[in-house]
Structures are given as structure tokens and as C-alpha cells.
Amino acid sequence: MARKYCEENERIKRKYLAYLKQAKGQDQKSLDKVAAALVQFELSTNFKPFKNFHIDQAGKFKNYLEKQRHPKTGKKLSYATTDATLRVVKAFFHWLAGQSGYKSRISYADVEYFNNNRKHARIAHAQRDVVFPTMEQALHAFQAMPDRAIFEKRDKAIFAFFMLTGSRDGAVASLKLKHINLFDGCVYMDARDVNTKNSKTFLTYFFPVDATYLECFTEWVENLRKDLLFGDADALFPKAERRLVNGQFVFDRLSRENYANASAIRDIVRGAFTSVQLPPYTPHLFRKTLAMHGDKVCSTLEQMKAWSMNLGHENLVTTVSAYMPVNQQRQGELIKGLSVGACPQGYRV
User: Among positive and negative, which fits the CA dihedral 89, 92, 98, 100?
Assistant: First the structure.
């Protein structure tokens, strides 16, 4: 059954999405979220033209979101999801209020009615403790991974690479062999080929973690080049090749192509943890693991800055604020444990 729509709305939405892409530089994933949020608003108004907007529609939209359920869990939408959806739709109408044909119908004051109430907004933006794997847990899960079959070797090398670099899963899924430099111990995140965040190009050196990670990854790269005769343009972590054998499709050997997305790679990491009765940690959480490890091994601000750059951050503040959580209990322990002159010299400002 075809989804209901308003042709007039579709045209202006296409114009807005083009504006976000061309003028604001947003990627396709962000554009998809905007498009989905606008459809939610249209559903709440039964697809009335945006030109017929009235402030009552903003209130009805909030009520609509409160009644929605997550498609997978069946639970009510989180405060964070609702708040993000309201902000996306508000931004659209703020832009719309300045467009020809809409200026006389939508005022900037009207757009403010999309604001979330203060209580729900505070809940949505409240910082919460995020559980991530310790260095010991990660090593335990890694060592328990099998490595006999070629796919097992690949999966274990993927885990090792995350611990060596803290890379984002989207980037890892798109890496080629040409991006790896084993001699200097680094990976070149070239945005021309690699799906990096905000299309940023940077160099990441292998972090000083347990030597077994580097041994595993090195063996994998050499296996690809020497045994499987992979070249620079081939995938670092290739997907399985589909081929027809005796009238049936089988996936029994590696292709030379990258995964289309990071979904399978995330499943590999989650499975490694759950197989040893640990929570299904995702690859992204390794960035917190490594950030906290860096805080332990770095003794100067210069070293910590280099550690932050290795994670792809231009600003050390980004690493500290996003990947080095300090809960209230730990906050108290740290403050109580300090004495005058206890801070390392390198951290004084």
C-alpha cells in the first residue's frame, strides 16, 4: 500500500534536503533522519500542506510523539528521541518561514511552539553513565575468539584493529589494504576512500595496547597479501563471496569487496563479548576504553593531545568530554584523593 503524501510538501522538502546537503554539508544519514522526522509531523496532521500550518499543530505533534512506540521494542519513545525529533522539525519550519510563499503564513514566533517543555528537555539532555569494556574485559573476549577458519581470522583481526586504533565502525568497514602501513604502525584515514566522520582525513598510529592485538592484525594483513594475493585496492576486512555451487548459493570464501555498511562488523564485536558472558559492547565503546587507558598511560598534556589526535579529534576537549566519563562517585574519589601539589606537572595550566 502506497504511503499517503502531499505533492506540495514533497517539493519543498526536497528543496530543504538539498539545502542541508549542499549548503550545510550534512551527510545522507543525517538527511534520512530529517526526512523521517518530517514524515512523522505530516502523519500527525494527516498530510496537510505546510502552508496551512497553525501553532495548534505543534502541540498536536508533541502529543502524537508521546503516543508513539519504538518499532522494535514496543516501548514509548525516549525523551532524547522525542526532543531530537522536535528540534529537527522546528529547524525545518524556521527555514520555511523565510521561503517565498511561506513568509506570510508562518512566523518565526510560531516556530517556537515546537520547543520541548523544560522538564522533558532536561531529561533528554541529562548526562548518564555509559558502561564500556575495560581493557581486561576486551582482552578476555579477544583471546576467546576462535581463529582457525578464514572468517574467524578476519573477525578476530577486526576486533584487534578496533583496539589498536579506536576507529569508528563505518570507517573500518570501508578501509582498503592501501590505507595500512605496518612498517610505521599506522592507518591513513583518507576521506576520499574511507567513510570517516565529517569526511575528515587524518593519520592514526596503533595505540600501545597488548601486543597480541598487533600480532593478530599483522598476521591478517600478511595473510591477505601473501596467501590470498590481495592488492592495495582490495578490502582490509572483506565480506563473504556469494557463489553458486551445485545449484545453491554458498558463502565459503572471501570476496575482495568491502561490506556495504558496518552492521556485520558491529555484530562480530557484540558476539565476541556475549560469547564470554559479557554485555554486547559495540565497537564505538572501544573509544571510551582507549580514552580512559590514555589517561592512565599519558603523563603530560602533550602526550594526551597526541592520544586525542589519534582518535581523530582536533581538540583535546572533545576527547575528555565525550570519551572520558567521570561519574559522581568517581568524582568524589578523585577530589578527596588530591592534595596540594598532587597534580602532575604536565597537567597544570
Answer: negative
CA 200 to chain centre: 14
Q: What is the mean pLDDT of residues 10-37?
A: 92
C-alpha angle 339-344-348 in degrees, rounded to nearest 5: 95
* In the predicted structure, residue 64 carries a pLDDT above the cut 90: yes
- Three-state SS for 251-265 is EEEECCCCCCCCHHH
Q: What is the pLDDT of residue 348?
A: 46
> How far, in Å, CA of 3 to CA of 192, rounded?
37
Q: Is the dihedral of CA 67, 68, 70, 71 positive or negative?
A: positive
pLDDT, one tens digit per residue, over 200-250 is: 899 999 999 999 999 999 999 999 999 999 999 999 999 998 877 777 777
Q: Is 96 exposed, middle or buried (0-12, 13-18, 19+ CB in 10 A)?
A: buried
Rg (CA), the chain: 24
All cell numbers assigned to 325: 566519563
Q: Contact at 8 Å (CB) between 290 and 207?
A: yes
DSSP string, 151-217: HHHHHHHHHHHHHHH---HHHHHH-BGGGEETTTTEEEE-TTTS--GGG--EEEEPPS--HHHHHHH
**Residue type (1 letter), 32:** D
Domain parsing of the chain, residue ranges: 7-125, 135-281, 287-347
What is the Cα–Cα distance from 335 to 168, expressed in whole angstroms? Answer: 33
**Superfamily of the domain at 135-281:** Intergrase catalytic core (1.10.443.10)
Q: Which residue has the cell 525529533?
A: 85
* Comparison of pLDDT for 65 and 2, the residue scoring more: 65
Q: Which three cell numbers stand for residue 327?
A: 561519574
Distance CA 72, CA 214 (A): 38
Q: 310-349 pLDDT, tens per residue? A: 998 888 877 877 777 666 666 677 677 776 555 555 544 3
pLDDT at residue 326 in the model: 66
Asked whether residue 23 carries a pLDDT value surpassing 70, the answer given is: yes
